Amino acid sequence: MSAMPDGVEPGETIRCDEVVELISDYLEGSLDVATNAEFEAHLALCEACAEYLRQMRMTLDAVGSVSLDPLSEQARADLIDAFRNVPRTP
Predict the structure, then answer these.
(1) How many distinct structural domains can be found in the chain?
(2) From CA 20, how far away is CA 23, in angstroms rounded?
(3) Domain enclosing residue 23, as ranges
(4) Residue range 46-68: average pLDDT?
């Protein structure tokens, strides 16, 4: 992310749909410093996105991690194909 445009407050250069796209990277701590700061500033302004983050954290806490070991090679390949074929939103 680049510097703030004139007259734009922190948290206003990122949209809610972008927050949704970045949430995994945020939770993994892999956002660059500027994007992370803008992400957190947006959360401070947007109750809906803050709630979405809270729900994602609750889900991760409840589910933890899921092992792929018990999956057959065919099931694993089917899952990968399914995710590759999910339509992307513009």
Answers:
(1) 1
(2) 5
(3) 16-84
(4) 88
